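pinned: reference chain
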Amino acid sequence: MMRRSRKKGLVPGTPVHIGQKMTDISSVRLVDFNETDILVTPDAAKEDITRKPPGDMIRWAHLTGVHDVELVQALCKQYNIHPLVVEDLVNTEHRPKVEIHQDYIFLVLKTFNLEGKESISIEQISFILGPTYLLSFQESDDPIFQPIFTRIEKDHGNVRSSGADYLAYSLLDLIVDDYYGFTESLSEHVETLEDEVIENPTTTTLHGIYRLKRIVSIARRNLWPLREIVGRLYRDPSSLIKPSTNIYMRDLYDHVIQVNDYLEGYREALSSMLDTYLSSVSNKMNEVMKVLTVISTVFIPLTLIAGIYGMNFFNMPELTWPYGYSTILIIMTVMGILMLAYFRKIDWI
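pinned: its C-alpha cells
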C-alpha cells in the first residue's frame, strides 16, 4: 500500500498513486456512441486514446487500475485536465467531492461492499464530465458499470439519444442503487443482532454491535458528502448539465438523502441495542447478586448459632442436654424456612 508520505517534498500536481493496488492489469475501454451508431474498443492502446471519436459521437472512456499513473496521465492529457486533478485521481484516499471547472466537472465518490459481518471494503470511483465526453476511473476491474454498457450497446433507455451529462447521471444513479443493496445487507445484520440482544445477549453479540457501528460510521462518513455533491450539481447552473438532465439529478438527490437517512437510522438502532445489551447484562448481574444476597441472609443467623455453640466453654448447659443437638437443628431449619418464605412473599425468589 502506497502511503501519503511518498509525496513529501514533491511539486504540487505530481501524480503519485496512494492506496492499494486492486488489479494487476490497467486498461481503458472506449465507448463512442450517438443515437444511431456505437463503436467499442475494449482494451484501448495509447494511439486509440489519442484518436478522436468520429463525427458527433459521445466518448465514454473507462479506466480500470488507477495505480498505472502513466496511463491516467495519457488519458487526461487528451482533454487538458489540470495536473492537480490528475494528482487527485491517483490518490484513492480522497474524501468524496465535486469540483466544477470551466471546461469539465470533476467528481470523486466511494462504493462499498459488505464482507460478511466483519468488515467493509471501499473503492474510489472518479468522473470527469466534459461537453462531449465522460472519463471514469476505477481502482479495480469489478464490472460495476456493465448494466450501463449493456444499455448503451442494446440501445435501451435514453443514454444513446442523450449527451455525456445523462451518461454521467446514469453511472451516478447506478452507484446510488448499489448503496441501496449495501443498506439492505446492513439491515439484515442489524435485525439479527436485535433478536440476539432481546433473546440471549452474549459477548459475541457485543462484538457484533461494535463491528456494525464501525461499518456504519465508515459508510456514513463517505456518504454524507454525497448530499453536497449531487445537490451542487443540480442547484448550481452549469453549461455541462442540460436542464433536461437536471431533473434527474434532483431525483438522484432525493435518493441520496434517503440512503443517508437509512444509515442514520441504523446508527441510532445500534446505539440503542448497545444500551439494551448493557442494561440486560446489568439486570443479569443484579439477579445473581440477589440470589447471593438471599443465600447470605439465610445463612448469617444459622452461622451465628453454629458459632455460638461451637465455642469450647465448659459452662454451656445446652451442651450436656440430651435434646440440645436436635433442638438446635430444628430451630435452625425453622429459621431458614421462615426466611425463605419471607423472601418468596416479597418476590425476591
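why pinned: The beta strands are 27-33, 38-41, 58-64, 97-100, 105-115, 119-129, 133-138. The longest helix spans residues 243-308.
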